[in-house]
Amino acid sequence: MADCCNGGCASGKPPADARYRRILWIALLVNAGMFVIELASGWHAESAALLADSADFMGDALNYGISLFILGLGTEWRRRSALLKGWSMAAYGLFVLATTAWHVAAGALPAASTMSVIGVLALVANGAVAALLYAFREGDADMRAVWLCTRNDVIGNLAVLAAAALVARTGGNWPDILVAAVMGALSLTAAWAVIRRARRESGAALVRT
Questions:
Q1: Per-residue pLDDT tens over the stretch 13-30
Q2: Is 104 exposed, middle or buried (0-12, 13-18, 19+ CB in 10 A)?
Q3: What is the C-alpha separation between 144 and 117, in angstroms, rounded?
Q4: Which domain holds residue 184?
Q5: Which domain of life is it from (predicted)?
Q6: How far is CA 29 from CA 20, 51, 60, 121, in A?
Q7: Which of 18, 49, 61, 204 could disulfide-link 31, Cβ–Cβ 3.0 to 4.6 Å?
Q8: Which residues have a Cβ under 8 Å from the Cβ of 71 and sit 6 or more positions away?
Q9: What value does the mean pLDDT take over residues 97-115?
Q10: Containing H/E element for 179?
């Protein structure tokens, strides 16, 4: 993908790359489908990690939709979109931590086999989307937000698989709880990075004007 500074900023609009638009549509459909699958599986398996990942799929589907809506609009709209995504990532992180606390109180033991099967499916889905988006990772704040969300998904899927293996080995729920908590913390960290970059770009735009 061409960087915003390769001509996109001069007109106030980023290059509305047709390939990037197609990838966003693919990512939206994949994430929406995986949200439904993982939500049902997470409740059935009583897994905090799967439920956390399903919420992430839902948030990402919404974020991809926002990116499609603002694609080709002015840079100010894209900065606002990045800020919205940053705050939504923060809200997701807080939701995950709250869900994790609830599972700690309930003491539910997740089904390791279901965690493993759904974890592999989610990893394949996110890995494919991440591979498609890799070339666009160094764009503006909005594109950076899209990439960070997808990258975090892949990391989260690997963590879910590790948790499933440890649940099966130890017979305890602590690996599931630990992974969910880490996923929540990772989302908060990424949210701060996106918000900070969007604000920096906004400040730079004010200086130019």
A1: 444 578 888 989 999 999
A2: middle
A3: 30
A4: 16-208
A5: Bacteria
A6: 14, 19, 10, 15
A7: 61
A8: 14, 16, 20, 21, 24
A9: 85
A10: helix 174-208
Which candidate, 22, 71, 34, places its Cα nearest to that of 157? 34
Tell me, what CATH number does 179's domain have? Answer: 1.20.1510.10
Name the amino acid, one letter, at 156: G
In the chain the first and final C-alpha atoms are separated, in Å, by 26
Helix/strand/coil for 59: helix
The structural domain count of the chain equals 1
Radius of gyration, alpha carbons of the chain? 18
In a domain, 11, yes or no: no
- What phi and psi values does residue 14 have, to the nearest 5 degrees? -80, 160
In a domain, 4, yes or no: no
Residue 35 lies in a domain: yes
How far is Cα 176 from Cα 56, in angstroms, rounded to an integer? 16
- State pTM to two decimals: 0.70
Tracing tokens 């939701």 back to the chain, one arrives at 95
